[in-house]
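Open question from group meeting: does this chain pack into something compact, or does most of it stay loose? Before anyone orders reagents, we agreed to write out a predicted structure and look at it together. Recording both the input and the output here so the notebook holds the full record.
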Amino acid sequence: MTTRIFQSIPLSPNALITLDEQASHHLARVLRCQQGELVVIFNGQGGEYTGKIVEIGKKQVTVQLHAYTDADVESPLDIWLAQGISRGEKMDYTIQKAVELGVNKIIPLFTERCNVKLDSERSEKRLQHWQSIVISACEQSGRNRVPEVIMPQTLKSWVVNVDASHRFVLSPYAVNKLKNQTISVADRVILLMGPEGGLSENEIEYASAHDFLPLNLGPRILRTETAAVAAITALQCQFGDMG
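Structure tokens returned:
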């Protein structure tokens, strides 16, 4: 499988580009690519370019771009994940898998049971970290458009400004089932779910008061990172491009 690399720069057929330091290190030192090997380059604007490594320097790799391919593996559903911030690797896993499954936007939320405390500086660093996970997931999964992770905010401040065709808040005590919903292609669907320990009853009621429909995925209680994967997969299988 040809290595895929994201570069946030203008791309065009036959262009000679120098990869950034991180991508250069990954190709030259981690993957140990050689001069003449083929790679795929994309910049998040849609489509991708095949290219050939023409030079490997100490800190930079140069690639000669060739043909452009209008490759598109984006989901017909516009899925947003509003995720209560979980700790460490759990949040990383959730973001990675959400991107692989086709989510378009990720909204990290501070909730009542959130055990992660971030000041403005740490929020910015964590945001950069999460966005790097998104990019890696796009490189791995074949996506050529890069989902956005927005700055962490409180659930109550975010909920009041939501705009979507369908808004679901995950709750193990809800009676509504996904199979009973009607969702059309190109609809925006927002999934709201809690961190470890889930959302509080007050938060579910608050979300419900702002047009979020409580949704039950099944009889078993799922961990936060499992719930996100299960919910997005169920959406894609029933209404999207999986199945």
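Observations to bring back to the group:
The radius of gyration is 20 Å.
The mean pLDDT is 95.
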